[in-house]
Specification:
Length: 234
């Protein structure tokens, strides 16, 4: 409602939509309310050159409803913009995982993967048992502790690195087919093990050189009675 002096002007639609695709008034009543018949014969004379007049796009509603339900696609709210990284999370930041298999573990952020926007983190595996994983930044708490990860090369690790190879199922898994499927699974695990070894080989000396950092990463985050996360300084 908009105020204009002592009077109030209602700014609602003249023909509101009851449900998607169905208006309150039909075409005849909507035309009367809009008084379109008064301007039906008026036009902009002399403004259009003959032969170049644009075809008018008809926006009039049908006179009768369709016998079948006509589904109108709703507007999509999906965004193609890349996920914005929080200012408190940077490569090398130690974060605490809040959900999942490794909840309560302290891990090191290596980079942000694209286009998923997930965080690539590691324990490292030799210290607290957390391998290379993808974690949503909504499920981590950023701490003030940082580790130098400039020498860690994870350029080859992407979202495709974590995709699982689908093995075709068969009624009988014996003979050559069984061993072929087993070799495929071992190839994927071997690639992850090799990438994990390279990352741990660079991070472990840096962590051991920093006092108490090894014990800090190995300790699990817990809360005792009377402690509240929003009051703690990480």
């Amino acid at each position: 409602m908009a105020k204009l002096g002592k009077k109030q002007i209602r700014t609602s639609a003249r023909n509101p939509e009851l449900i998607p695709g169905v208006r309150r008034y039909g075409r005849a009543i909507a035309s009367q309310k809009g008084a379109k018949y008064k301007h039906a014969k008026l036009g902009a004379k002399g403004k259009q050159t003959p032969g170049k007049a644009k075809a008018a796009i008809s926006t009039a509603e049908p006179r009768f409803y369709s016998a079948d339900d006509v589904k109108i696609p709703l507007r999509s709210h999906k965004s193609n913009k890349p996920t914005k990284l929080r200012a408190s999370i940077q490569p090398g930041t130690v974060v605490i995982i809040l959900a999942g298999r490794f909840r309560g573990k302290r891990v090191i952020v290596l980079k942000q993967l694209q286009p998923s926007g997930l965080l690539l983190v590691t324990g490292p595996f030799k210290i607290n048992g957390v391998p290379l994983r993808r974690v949503n930044q909504a499920y981590v708490i950023a701490t003030s502790t940082k580790v130098d990860v400039s020498k860690v090369d994870v350029s080859a690790v992407s979202d495709a690195f974590f995709t699982k190879v689908k093995v075709a199922k068969s009624a009988k898994k014996d003979g050559e087919e069984f061993f072929a499927n087993k070799e495929k699974k071992s190839e994927v695990s071997a690639a992850r093990k090799e990438a994990q070894k390279k990352v741990d080989a660079v991070l472990k000396p840096i962590i051991n050189a920093t006092p108490n950092l090894h014990h800090y990463l190995n300790a699990k985050f817990t809360l005792t009675a009377g402690q509240f996360p929003h009051q703690l300084k990480f």
